[in-house]
Write a structure and sequence with these properties.
With about 250 residues, the chain is α+β, with helices and mostly antiparallel strands. It is about 35% helix and about 15% strand. It has helices spanning about 5-15, 20-30, 45-60, 65-85, 95-100, 130-135, 140-155; strands at about 160-165, 175-185, 190-195, 205, 235-245. The protein has a 5-stranded antiparallel beta sheet. The longest helix is centred in the first third of the chain and has 18 residues, at about 65-85.
Amino acid sequence: MPDIFSDIQSDIQSRDPFAFSLQEQLQDVSGKETEELPKDDTPKDHTDFFSDIKEFIKDKLPFVDSEREISEKRDEEFKDFLFNWSDSGYGNCFAFASGFFKDPTTGKNFDHKPAPGDISGQWDGDYMPYFDDLVYETDENGVRQTLEYYWAKDCARSDKELERAPSGDYQPKEGERLVAMMYSDRPYAEDFHFMVKGQYGTWYHKPGLMAPKRTDESGEIITDPATCNRGIYDHFCGYYIVRDKV
């Protein structure tokens, strides 16, 4: 961690030539003689000074934002998601979480709900034709690897790349999205689902053609897809980074 307090002290001294350094104050306490500083009774407006100090600290430690400020930023982020996806055609959870705002093959809104492998031309239609069978014929690892395989092909078709993330705590860099993948193997409800992490720790998802949400099946704000109430999506497959190719 940078020596923030030394930086702040230096910043204060550069603004106020009469400010004591820590060492000078200790010398004064220890009994050593110090030169008496001239007294300045002129009223001062320190508003700009303390405002600058606050920005200086926030630049060094961005997490010092208050909970209220973070909450407001999350609300604005959610509004942006709602606005950006208010007219996404058939954009579903997969398109939403992966950042496929338009059909990469046409540049227009999706005219069907895309599934992993659909964007890269593996099949036509709005669902993987084999998924119902897949969840019964293989285990969780097999389902995960199959979804990864076709998802990676879609990313490559869209000038993106896919890789596994170390954990849900990973903070996406510019041009990256952190996505969680899960699926259901319940009879007559075989389905996959994806969530994406926002900038301030909240996770978002788009159930089918509905508007984006930030709450789970219990109505709680999602802070960890692995432990939240995912409803029918019993199988959690892990976290992934979707990165724009440079």
